[in-house]
Amino acid sequence: MLVDHFPLVGLRLRTPRLELRLPSPEELATLAEVAADGIHTPDVMPFLIPWTDQPSAEVARAVIQHHWLRLGNWSSQDWSLSFTVFHAGDVVGQQSIGARDLAVIRQVQTGSWLGQRHQRRGIGTEMRAAVLHLAFTQLGAEEAVSSAFADNPASQAVSRKLGYQPDGLDRHLVRGAMVIDCRMRLTREDWERHRTIPVTIDGLTPCLPMFGINTA
């Protein structure tokens, strides 16, 4: 079976409302369609690489290719896992977590997107809480980092709610204009003080070596 050779396909994170896991081919197609239907209004761009400015068919294809690329380039020293997020059985978005040299650096980074029709329902907070639980309770992380543009208050609000603290600013060129990127950092101690969402994890043990975790 595939899970015997690539155990990440058996990994499941669950919160009271959500399930996070790798998608089947059909579910990946649905995820691509959710992105093509819209993640944000045309007047804003929340991503450093404006991949959602493409025609909808190309946006969908980009989601599929990015999913395959991350898994195909997987290394225990440099990995990024993009979970598909399910709410009441429906595909609603994507939550990623990644790290380099996690066993030494002890830091993860996260990123996410939600289809527009699923936003403003607390799903973004819950799905990030799931991967933070994975990082801090199972993968030995000591800090998590994220960022959001200054004109993306919703993402910044999620970070603050989960205990992140400001970690400086960066300047980037997006759509031909300068944007301010607000970095955020979450320590294990602040995460513990702010955690309120219960998370269960299944299928993790065989995955640990893929995350660079020594199980010997």
Name the CATH superfamily assignment: Gcn5-related N-acetyltransferase (GNAT)
Mean pLDDT: 95
CATH architecture grouping: 3-Layer(aba) Sandwich
Please outline the major beta sheet. 9 strands, mixed
Radius of gyration: 17 Å
Which structural class should the secondary elements be placed in? alpha+beta
**Number of separate helices:** 7
Strand arrangement within the widest β-sheet reads 7-8-6-5-4-3-2-1-9
* Total beta strands: 9
Fraction of residues in helix: 25-40%
CA(first)-CA(last) distance: 24 Å
* Overall tally of domains: 1
Give the low-confidence spans. none
CATH class: Alpha Beta
Which strand-content bin applies to the residues?
Answer: 25-35%
Secondary-structure element string:
HEEHHEEHEHEHEEHE
CATH topology call: Aminopeptidase
What characteristic shape results from the CA principal axes?
globular
Structure description:
Residues 18-189 form the N-acetyltransferase domain. One of its GO terms (molecular function) is protein-N-terminal-alanine acetyltransferase activity. This is Succinyl-CoA transferase Rv0802c. It comes from Actinoallomurus iriomotensis. Keywords: Transferase. This protein is an alpha+beta fold. The chain has one domain: Gcn5-related N-acetyltransferase (GNAT) (Aminopeptidase, 3-Layer(aba) Sandwich), CATH 3.40.630. The protein contains seven helices and nine strands; from the N terminus they run αββααββαβαβαββαβ. The chain has helices spanning 2-5, 25-37, 56-72, 102-105, 123-138, 153-162, 188-194; strands spanning 12-14, 18-21, 78-87, 90-100, 107-114, 143-149, 165-174, 177-187, 200-202. Strands 7-8-6-5-4-3-2-1-9 form a nine-stranded mixed sheet, with helices on both faces. α2 (25-37) packs across α3 (56-72). It starts with a helix and ends in a 14-residue tail after the last strand. 32% of the residues are buried. The model has no long low-confidence stretch (mean pLDDT 95).
